[in-house]
C-alpha cells in the first residue's frame, strides 16, 4: 500500500509538473523559448555562403508582379468588363498572383540571407536563436516548411481551387530556386543545376510526408520531423529549439485554420513573427470576424475582379 501510494504521488507530481510547464510555455513566444537555451552549439564552417553577384527579385522578373507596380486605370476598367462579359472564374485566375507570387514571397523572405548582410528579425530567429547554418540548403528547408504550412490550408479549400493554388506555389518555388542557383550561387552548369533541383524535389516530398504525419498526430512526432528536416538530424540539438519550432508551427496552423477560404485565397494571410504569441479566438471574436466579412464581401460596390465563389465563413 505504501509503495502504491508513493507511486501514485510520484505520478501526480509528474503530471502537475507537466501541466505547469505547458502553462509556462503558453506564455512564451517561440523566440523566448529558443533563447532560453543554455547549451553552446558550434556550427561547422560554412563553406558555401550565399554571396551573389546579383540578387533575384523577391517576386519575379515580371514588372506586373513588382510590389510597386500599379495597373493603369484604363487597363483596370477593360479588365473588369472582360471579367463580366466572359464570366471569368476569378478564384482560378487568382491562384497565380496570390499563391505563386504573394504567398511564395511570404515563404521566401522568412529565411532569406546573404553573406555579410544584416539579417531580418525573422531570419535572426532561425540563424541566431536556433543556430541554423547560413547556407542555401538551409534556406530551402526554412522555405519548404512555410510552403508546407500554406499547402495544408490549400488542401482544405475546394479541391479544384486548392490543387491549383498548390501547383502555382510549388511551380514558383522551384523556378525561383533554379534562377537563384544560377544567379546567386553561380551554378552555371545545367546538368549540375538539374541534379540540385532533383535532390531538393526529393527532399520536399519527404518532408511533406513527415510534417503531415506530425500535424495529424502529436507534438513529439512533429518535433521528430522538424529535427530530421529543418535541423538536418544533427546530434547537438537543444530540445528547447525543438519546443520553439513546434510552437511556431502549431501557431501558424491555428491562424490558418481560422481563416475563411475567401480571405486566404485573396492573399490576406501573413506568417506570425516568432516574437509574438497567438491567443485563441473567443466565440465572440469569431462572430465579429464573420460580421466584418459579410460587410466586406456582400457590399454592392464590390468589383467583378473582387468577387468569389469561395466561402467567407470559416
Automatic annotation (TrEMBL):
One of its GO terms (biological process) is mitochondrial respiratory chain complex III assembly. InterPro entries: Ubiq_cyt_c_chap, Ubiqinol_cyt_c_chaperone_CPB3. GO terms for cellular component: mitochondrion. Residues 128-271 form the Ubiquinol-cytochrome c chaperone domain. Belongs to the CBP3 family. This is CBP3 protein. The gene is CBP3.
Amino acid at each position: 500500500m505504501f509503495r502504491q501510494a508513493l507511486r501514485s504521488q510520484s505520478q501526480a507530481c509528474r503530471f502537475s509538473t507537466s501541466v505547469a510547464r505547458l502553462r509556462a510555455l503558453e506564455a512564451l513566444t517561440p523566440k523566448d523559448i529558443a533563447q532560453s537555451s543554455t547549451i553552446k552549439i558550434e556550427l561547422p564552417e560554412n563553406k558555401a555562403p550565399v554571396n551573389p553577384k546579383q540578387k533575384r527579385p523577391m517576386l519575379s522578373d515580371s514588372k506586373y508582379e513588382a510590389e510597386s507596380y500599379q495597373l493603369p486605370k484604363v487597363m483596370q476598367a477593360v479588365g473588369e468588363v472582360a471579367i463580366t462579359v466572359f464570366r471569368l472564374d476569378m478564384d482560378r485566375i487568382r491562384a497565380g498572383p496570390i499563391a505563386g507570387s504573394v504567398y511564395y514571397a511570404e515563404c521566401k523572405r522568412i529565411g532569406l540571407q546573404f553573406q555579410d548582410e544584416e539579417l531580418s528579425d525573422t531570419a535572426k530567429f532561425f540563424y541566431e536563436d536556433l543556430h541554423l547554418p547560413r547556407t542555401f540548403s538551409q534556406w530551402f528547408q526554412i522555405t519548404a516548411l512555410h510552403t508546407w504550412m500554406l499547402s495544408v490550408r490549400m488542401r482544405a479549400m475546394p479541391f479544384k481551387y486548392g490543387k491549383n493554388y498548390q501547383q502555382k506555389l510549388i511551380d514558383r518555388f522551384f523556378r525561383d530556386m533554379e534562377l537563384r542557383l544560377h544567379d546567386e550561387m553561380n551554378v552555371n552548369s545545367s546538368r549540375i543545376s538539374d541534379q540540385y533541383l532533383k535532390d531538393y524535389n526529393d527532399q520536399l516530398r519527404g518532408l511533406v510526408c513527415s510534417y503531415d504525419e506530425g500535424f495529424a498526430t502529436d507534438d513529439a512526432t512533429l518535433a521528430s520531423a522538424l529535427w530530421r528536416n529543418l535541423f538536418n538530424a544533427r546530434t547537438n540539438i537543444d530540445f528547447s529549439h525543438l519546443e520553439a519550432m513546434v510552437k511556431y508551427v502549431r501557431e501558424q496552423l491555428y491562424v490558418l485554420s481560422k481563416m475563411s477560404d475567401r480571405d486566404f485565397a485573396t492573399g490576406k494571410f501573413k506568417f506570425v513573427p516568432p516574437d509574438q504569441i497567438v491567443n485563441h479566438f473567443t466565440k465572440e471574436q469569431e462572430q465579429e470576424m464573420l460580421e466584418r466579412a459579410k460587410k466586406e464581401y456582400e457590399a454592392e460596390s464590390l468589383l467583378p475582379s473582387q468577387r468569389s465563389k469561395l466561402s467567407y465563413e470559416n
